[in-house]
């Protein structure tokens, strides 16, 4: 700084301060150093340049100029740099970094007669930017960063600073970092990708950063124009208490969206889960509003919605069956997964196609600085994830794989029919991320999982998920950014039957979808941020085919014709900061759906039930011909109002369309469930939801408290007729009926984030009902009245607690209580052909016994030395400590003329587990 001041002083004393008429020259540069370019201009003219070499040592110049003014040439070669220039009367040229040289002072530089209070808009009328040169000791020792290039014609006195927060050690993004401008009521926080945007007053700003596990920092930022700066921060190695589910510490109070939960995989490692497997989706079930049909059930019920009403995304690609091993494990690798954001209330306008929720799951970026990894060995599965730089500091590759040796579990279950059963699964994931420059990033993710199992000796079932996604992030400028996403997902299942009779067969099913999405972000000002774009998705569903297995099989080959459809949407949302207290997030999505040929659609009599007797004919459609269209507007509105800085009230409304349905007559998701597209005879599902909630933080965010209620109405829910044949049925519309649904509930969450004892208590009271009504008896269930859905469980309590004895030793507990789910019981019997048969009650009139379970674990970490090959973590857990024989289902069969009742359970005994994890 002293050198620069002396330089300016000598130049000004020697040459004066008046500029004169410019001269013209012809000159050309071809990728030469800027210092050499300036030297060539000096040789051709009488101009002489004054600057510090380090300002321009990295810059190179290209360009050709014919009879051009020197001023114009300098403006062109300095255009994309932070260098300004000032020409003296004797053609001496003074270069400055960031700032401008002014030859006049503003009128009020020496003070005014009366002091005035001015806001930023009034400041626009002031003159050049002057900095306070009186620095205290703290300011002299902190890093000083200059951002942007001062523009003489700019009238703005606030500028936008964008950037990312990055862990200096492993180069991974730091989410939920608080960024505060000291002495000014300005602040923000980083998102899940470590990105931030903040409006700063022109001139000097002292920026403080704070986050759990990250060293606090102070940076002196002098901002002259819009610009970019990345915080590269060190980890804090102080002894910190365990935090189980941790987002932005004020996020639950500050955001406008209702019903949003952010789960970090790293922070759930202590929750005791079955067989020691860390599982982000199982952890989600311990939170209010998310449940499933029972132990071992795959699929998730969110706020009274069905399992097919959840959009599960892995890096923007859809996962149709996110479960391994009959729902006991998640199909997502916990070591490669970074976060999961669950939207169960107000869903952002960019998402569509599902009624109840969005699970937006992100794979972590690979380490682009050094080779690293994480692995675990357990009694059922082994898991490994490796990360390696491709171009150091810019790109990295992450590879993960997981497999099981789980056959012994089936042999230990309390069911003789399962003793000879087999089951296996594996999944692999790969992600490549590359930073091209500060404005462009790309990432690519590939994922594949497969399950194969044999419950009986003559049948082998298998199913698989596959997805590929590509994403390009581009920043046009400080206010405009763009994401382009291309993804493809596929789900398959198959059954291979090889029995003693001549009906051996091979059955297959496939569902494939491809989506292109463009998302734009525009920061209009500090009050409005717009997100807008479009998405288009092409479905290809092969409803099933069956072929004979072996030459002696008498099975007749059959292939159900493929279904195709195009679902598209445009969306626009605005995050509008009305005032410091009121924030509104409003969006509109308009979706279009086209059922496409080629195909044949059956037609039926009007005002008649759909069955073979009422069919009037068929309509044939050519390739890509539109069979039927659906669509409509989807409103997304939510608002947050601060009652005080730590207490807010939120309200939301949203409606949605869903054009794809599952066909199932099971109580939960099954590998053999098929998906059905809306067409001429099956309409899309619709839902409307309102919610209202109170959110309060205590003792500096040590405690979080929330209470949220919701009410949801649905229509065109797809259900099955009694005795329906859903698989390999060409006239599927004759086996199903569509009806209405309603759900309502209250969700309570109390969470303790700090201290030796931490965790949360969640309670949900919720009801979910279905009405299948029609003027025709065969399409009417329970007399056309509302009845409980299969997953209606009014009371749901979860307690997750962690206690930290020392830095390395901790214990965890997980307690769950749920009301028993509805079932249909026999209420009478009759005889036919000398055998006794039963007739049943109204659908779902009774309930199985209530469910409760206690899990315990003891966790021991290795020593915390920084310089060691690997950091280890042992987990000793017992699942179902009480040995509760929780019934999964109750069913009745007639054997040898007698009615027998059966109860199935998944884990009826305590299940101990030892798991070893290490990270390097």
From TrEMBL:
Residues 276-353 form the TonB-dependent receptor plug domain. InterPro entries: Beta-barrel_TonB_sf, CarboxyPept-like_regulatory, Oar-like_b-barrel, Plug_dom, Plug_dom_sf, TonB-dep_rcpt-like. Its main location: membrane. PROSITE patterns: TONB_DEPENDENT_REC_3. It is a multi-pass membrane protein. It is found in: Cell outer membrane. Keywords: Cell outer membrane, Membrane, Receptor, Transmembrane, Transmembrane beta strand, Transport. Residues 442-665 form the TonB-dependent transporter Oar-like beta-barrel domain. It comes from the Bacteria. It holds the Pfam family CarbopepD_reg_2. Belongs to the TonB-dependent receptor family. This is TonB-dependent receptor. It comes from Croceitalea rosinachiae.
């Amino acid at each position: 700084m002293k050198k620069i001041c002396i330089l300016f002083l000598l130049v000004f004393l020697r040459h004066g301060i008046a500029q004169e008429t410019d001269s013209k020259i012809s000159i050309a540069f071809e990728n030469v150093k800027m210092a050499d370019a300036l030297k060539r201009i000096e040789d051709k003219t009488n101009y002489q340049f004054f600057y510090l070499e380090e300002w321009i040592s990295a810059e190179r110049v290209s360009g050709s100029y014919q009879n051009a003014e020197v001023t114009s040439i300098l403006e062109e070669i300095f255009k994309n740099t932070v260098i300004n220039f000032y020409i003296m009367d004797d053609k001496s040229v003074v270069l400055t970094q960031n700032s401008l040289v002014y030859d006049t002072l503003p009128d009020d530089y020496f003070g005014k007669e009366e002091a005035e209070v001015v806001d930023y808009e009034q400041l626009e009328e002031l003159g050049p930017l002057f900095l306070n040169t009186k620095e205290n000791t703290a300011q002299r020792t902190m890093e000083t960063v200059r951002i942007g290039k001062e523009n003489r014609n700019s009238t703005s006195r606030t500028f936008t600073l964008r950037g990312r927060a990055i862990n200096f050690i492993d180069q991974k993004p730091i989410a939920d970092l608080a960024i505060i401008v000291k002495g000014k009521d300005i602040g923000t926080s980083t998102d899940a990708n470590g990105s931030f945007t903040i409006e700063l007053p022109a001139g000097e700003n002292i920026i403080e950063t704070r986050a759990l596990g990250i060293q606090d920092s102070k940076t002196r930022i002098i901002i002259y124009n819009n610009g970019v700066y990345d915080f590269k921060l060190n980890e804090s190695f102080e002894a910190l208490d365990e935090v189980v589910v941790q987002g932005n510490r004020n996020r639950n109070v500050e955001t406008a969206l209702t019903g949003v939960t952010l789960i970090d995989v790293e922070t759930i490692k202590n929750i005791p889960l079955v067989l020691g497997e860390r599982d982000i989706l199982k952890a989600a079930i311990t939170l209010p509003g998310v449940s499933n049909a029972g132990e071992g059930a795959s699929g998730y019920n969110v706020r009274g919605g069905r399992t097919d009403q959840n959009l599960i995304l892995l890096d923007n690609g859809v996962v149709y069956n996110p479960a391994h091993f009959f729902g006991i494990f998640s199909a997502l690798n916990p070591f490669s997964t970074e976060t999961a954001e669950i939207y169960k209330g107000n869903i952002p306008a960019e998402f569509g196609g599902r009624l109840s929720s969005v699970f937006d799951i992100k794979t972590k970026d690979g380490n682009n600085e050094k080779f690293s990894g994480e692995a675990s060995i357990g009694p059922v599965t082994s898991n490994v994830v490796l990360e390696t730089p491709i171009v150091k500091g810019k790109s990295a590759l992450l590879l993960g794989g997981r497999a099981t040796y789980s056959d012994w579990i089936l042999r230990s279950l309390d069911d003789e029919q399962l003793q000879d059963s087999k089951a296996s699964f594996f999944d692999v994931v790969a992600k490549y991320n590359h930073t091209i420059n500060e404005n462009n990033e790309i990432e690519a993710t590939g994922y594949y999982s497969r399950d194969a199992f044999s419950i009986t000796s003559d049948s082998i079932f298998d199913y698989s998920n596959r997805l590929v996604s590509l994403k390009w992030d581009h920043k046009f400028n400080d206010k405009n950014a763009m994401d382009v996403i291309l993804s493809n997902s596929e789900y398959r299942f198959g059954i291979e039957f090889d029995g003693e009779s001549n009906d051996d067969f091979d059955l297959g099913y496939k569902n494939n979808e491809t989506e292109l999405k463009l998302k734009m972000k525009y920061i209009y000002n500090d009050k409005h941020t717009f997100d807008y774009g479009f998405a288009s998705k092409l479905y290809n569903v092969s409803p099933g085919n069956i072929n004979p297995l072996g030459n002696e099989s008498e099975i007749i080959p059959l292939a159900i014709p493929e279904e195709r459809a195009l679902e598209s949407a445009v969306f626009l949302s605005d995050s509008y900061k009305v005032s410091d207290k009121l924030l509104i997030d409003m969006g509109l999505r308009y979706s279009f759906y086209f059922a496409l040929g080629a195909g044949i659609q059956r037609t039926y009599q009007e005002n008649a039930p759909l069955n073979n007797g009422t069919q009037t004919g068929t309509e044939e459609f050519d390739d890509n011909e539109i069979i039927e269209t659906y669509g409509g507007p989807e409103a997304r509105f939510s608002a947050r109002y601060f009652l005080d800085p730590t207490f807010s009230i939120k309200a939301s409304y949203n409606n949605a369309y869903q054009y794809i349905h599952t066909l199932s007559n099971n109580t939960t998701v099954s590998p053999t469930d098929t998906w059905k597209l809306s067409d001429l005879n099956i309409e899309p599902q619709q839902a409307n939801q309102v919610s209202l909630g109170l959110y309060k933080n205590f003792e500096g965010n040590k405690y979080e408290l929330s209470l949220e209620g919701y009410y949801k109405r649905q229509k065109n829910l797809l259900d099955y007729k009694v005795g329906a044949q859903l698989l390999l049925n060409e006239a599927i519309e004759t086996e199903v009926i569509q009806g209405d649904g309603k759900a309502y509930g209250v969700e309570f969450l109390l969470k303790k984030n700090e201290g030796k004892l931490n965790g949360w208590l969640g309670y949900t009271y919720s009801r979910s009902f279905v009405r299948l009504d029609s003027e025709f008896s065969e399409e009417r269930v329970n007399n056309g009245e509302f009845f409980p859905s299969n997953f209606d469980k009014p009371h749901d309590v979860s307690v997750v607690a962690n206690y930290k004895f020392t830095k390395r030793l901790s214990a965890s507990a997980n307690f769950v209580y749920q009301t028993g789910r509805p079932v249909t019981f026999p209420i009478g019997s009759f005889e036919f052909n000398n055998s006794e048969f039963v007739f049943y009650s109204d659908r779902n009139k009774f309930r199985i016994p209530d469910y409760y379970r206690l899990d315990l674990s003891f966790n021991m970490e290795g020593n915390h030395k920084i310089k060691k090959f690997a950091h280890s973590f042992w987990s000793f857990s017992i699942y179902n400590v009480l040995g509760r024989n929780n019934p999964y289902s109750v069913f009745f069969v007639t054997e040898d003329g007698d009615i027998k009742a059966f109860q199935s359970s998944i884990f009826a005994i305590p299940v101990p587990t030892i798991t070893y994890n290490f990270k390097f």
